[in-house]
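Input:
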Amino acid sequence: MKQNHLHRLTVIVTAAVYLAVLTATVIAFRPSEFPLPTLQTAFNGEWTGRVEAYLTEHIGFHDELFRVKSRADLLLGEKMIQGVYITDDMLLEKLVTDDTPDAAASAQPVNDFYAKTGMPTYLILVPSASEVYKSTLPANALNADQKNRIQAIYAETAAGVRCVDAYNVLSSRKDNYIYYRTDSHWTSYGCYCVYQTAIQKMGVSAVPYENYVISHLSTEYRGDLYARTLYSGVKADVLDRYRNEDGVQITHVTAYYGDGSIEDRGDALYDESAVETEDMYRYYLGKPCEKLVIQTNLDNGRKLLLYKDDFADCMIPFLAEHYSEICIIDLTRMRSAYLTAADPADYTQALFLCSMEAWDQIW
Amino acid sequence: MYLSSFTFTVAVLPVLLLCYYLIPGKARRSFLLIAGLLLYGWGSPVRVLYLAACVMYDYGTGLLLEKWQEKRALSTCVLAFSAVMQAGAMAWIRGSVSGDLLFPFGIAIYTLQGLGYLIGIYRRRHTAEVNFARLALYLTLFPVLYAGPLLSFVEFREQLDEKPRSMEDLSEGLSLFLRGLAEKVVLADTFGYIFRELRQIAPEQLSMLTAWLTTIVFSLYLYFELFGYSEMARGLGRAFGFTLPKNFSHPFFTSSITTFMQSWNITLVLWFQTNFRYFLFGEHQSKWRKYSGLILMWTLIGSWYGLRPQFALWGLVIGLLLTAEQLLLGPTLKKRYVVGLFYTAIVLQFAWVLFFAESLSEAGTIWAAMLGFGERIADRNGLYFFTSYIAVILIGLYIATDLFRNISERIAETKFGRSIAIFRPAVNVLLLLLSLASMLYGERIQSLWLRL
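Output:
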């Protein structure tokens, strides 16, 4: 082939690929997500940064290109994609070791609460799947030691605060389906196991496992770790709903948002619409809010004040079996304002339930 | 706007090329000037002010130097003042402006080009440019502002005459740009990411294996970062009608520091040789002046890379090693090629530590670990990184050697090479897609350790 023709062909082919990528980007254009400049953002670099972030997220053939890169990396020996270890059976998030405060500082929020209220206070820090399934991580993989960190924080809690060893409960059942394979949360079963131990410590007996009717909401659930890696070599998850037919009924759910608005959700605890979306885990507690008050038809005078992150969402149906009211404060949204979010005097018990990872990020 | 951003690669570049090839000949240079300034000020127009001030200063001073050509004392004073002021301003800005937004990136490049332009007039290598726009285009030529290559004013002026647009320039330019982009986003960013992860480990906890991995990965990051940007610049230059000089020539696995430095940041070293060493120390020098000039020049080159004293020390060490090679080691290294390979590789790995260590004492800790005086010979960290990234490191090392260049060139010259040239469009497509895929990871490391 003559050099001239080769040059022409090179330009035409390269331009054609450019055109294909551009066309796909334009077709996938989401006007609602595209950042528009203001006088300020156009001059302070913010807008250009957002445009770049938009293009990174919505470039044509995004998923295909992402898979090409991650597969090539894995082929060359890389063992993780975007901070997620790829193992045969599960996607396991890498736990970062740096910048964690010391154990005493991490126990401080619970200690402060107990010192202020003196009410029965419980703490459950839930380890990530990467800690429980440490042995399945790639050889020599770097991971923070959550087991020891949880123990160290528990050791720093005030004498009256009672801690639940979720790590032991979960690791003794690690042959069961206690964590999602493609999501960073625990499954309803993993959550039930910890609930069993915790509620006993809180003074009542757990509802037996046999009382629950389990239905599959989805057998094709792919969670947040899948969204980060787009790795489909791991089996999809099953999202379950536990229903106690003869159990307590939810009578009223009220959501309080940070902007001051209040939403009356009637007696609906679950968000059925979430099953149709990518964020299926939202099914358990609906749209995130700063404070959620749940009332039941139980009239035993027991009221629970629950400080939590989204790990607690699937435990609410279990806990609701024992309380006439549960006031749920989302720590990831309230952060240091958690002490003023509700009046502890209205409640009989307080529970801090959080994943270890979120606990470190919150404080 | 970074050349390796989605905004530039996907949205801006096609528009720039289309406009450049559509508009009539005379307007093309003005278009390049305006486009370059817009790209430079993208997101933070304040940056353009300093660049514009430099251009105006160099323009006015250039005319003055030419006018006072015969008054040597006066023109020497003007030149010395300009050199001290511009180098001082560059050092001050690089040291004090924090954050990406206000930082006038490319300052280390256009300050040298501006100074080179003034020295050129003083030494009567060329005349002062009377056309302000032409000088502005030279000093703001956007492809080179990221990491070079440095272009002398004589080379630039020779290329200013109208050239017909050619498909060859566009095709070669695009291919070169895509190769550079892949070197930056596929290789440099990968090594940058591994290096950043390795640097999370406290120096005193480094094992011997981890310490060596850190410095090897850093050298590969640095090379592909600078090389990638230089190749992108050359590609864009070619597509826009300029031929820019080569800046790197596969320097890894050479048998002496002298050979290494002849293939490393070639245009920068050439700038210092032309405008500093021979200028201050003359063409015919005594041995003492020759080598002291060499050592001083390399100390300055080191300082150009960064303001911390470690950079200057790096330059000093390289200068001393080059002197030692020229005076003593040269013949031995020529005879014993394999010894030379090991000596160069090991010495350079020790030297690169100065580039990234936060302090001299940290560099000392890393060196101790490299020599086996650290925590252990190998640890979990080291083994994890080694098993995860050894393939990528070996590929990077191979591409950075002249072995790769020689094989590529030899194949290209054979009949087989000529017949597979037809696949060049496919190579371009592959490089583009691989680059876009790598850019998605969001791990783009924009000159984390260098503020050029």
